[in-house]
Amino acid sequence: MDLFGSRLKEGVQENRKQISLNNKDIEGRVKFSDILIKKNIDMEKKKSTRLSYNSGCTCCPRHCANKSFCGKSSNVVRVAKVMRHMYEEPILCPAGMGSGAIFFSFCSLKCVYCQNYEISSLGQGKDIKIYDLCEIFKKLEKMGVANINLVTPTHYTFEIIEALNSYRPKIPVVWNSSGYEDSSNINKLKGLVDIFLFDAKYFSPELSAKYSGARDYFDNFIKSLVVAREIVGEDIVQNGVMKKGIIVRLLVLPNAWRDSIEIFRHIKEKVGTNIYVSLMSQYVPMHKAKFYPEINRKITPLEYKKVLREMIGLGFNKGFTQDKTSANICFTPNFSRPTLELK
């Protein structure tokens, strides 16, 4: 487990170094005003892969009939922030490069404790076209980031597929998802997405229903994880940077350490232990957590250690852990101050 520990130190030190940079706003970021927004006639004429709400939306397992649960509008992509992100796992954001994060507005889960609630629930952001999204891909590549990191992309699955079919970045594409996916849609990402970064939020249907309104969360997560493994095959990490593969993130929630352990047990059963895992201690009660006393606090060191001990005992030894200092809102992107200027 020495490698595991060394990655922990590396990740935490990197985060601490970046705090001052982020607060001074000198980290490299993309502004929409820097991107030439123009109408691409050829792209406009292409037959869209997107669905009209007249026939319903099938981006996530909810399969909304008319009005979407997530809040998105038909045929529109809304983006809240584009930035060089330095706070992901070390193999995704190597020093000096970072990850080219595109934060999409709205979410198919809307967890009551969401740290990004300004964009996931309130929908802050700018509406853009598919062509604009392709231009963002190109701009991030020119910045020298390690990958294109699509953050909370699920509800825009078909729009993103259209964009990636129009322009395929030369660097890895990361599907940074809540884990609440329709597995048939994950299969459609074959050849377009290189890395799947899945949250594993709940095993218990009661917990997922209570905090995210999704009783079927785990069933859909585990099915999608199996499909993702079939798509990408074995993990490929070169010189400490992931080029292809899967990372499963598990955020330990207060009073839910037993649930976290069950998640690891079922992951082992379905895909084995030769998979990168990221055990997170960064939970901070935000948004509506104050209305749920049992999660209206940070997790204790003991809760985290119980999950970590069981994770190691099950045979998971590839991945990352977090120091308790990660439970700090300073690591949450500032969505109240617009980073994007659409012109």
Describe it.
- By secondary structure, the protein is an alpha/beta fold.
- The chain has a single domain (2-19, 53-331), classed as Aldolase class I (TIM Barrel), CATH 3.20.20.70.
- Helices cover 33% and strands 16% of the residues.
- It has ten helices and ten strands.
- It has helices at residues 2-23, 41-45, 117-120, 130-143, 157-166, 183-188, 205-212, 217-232, 257-271, 301-314; strands at residues 77-85, 99-104, 126-128, 148-151, 173-177, 195-199, 236-238, 241-251, 276-280, 319-321.
- Helix 4 (130-143) crosses helix 5 (157-166) and helix 9 runs parallel beside helix 10 (301-314).
- It is globular.
- The N and C termini lie far apart (50 Å).
- Residues 1-54 have low confidence and may be disordered.
Please give a handful of descriptors for the protein shown.
single chain; about 350 residues; TIM Barrel; 10 helices; 10 strands; about 35% helix; disordered N terminus
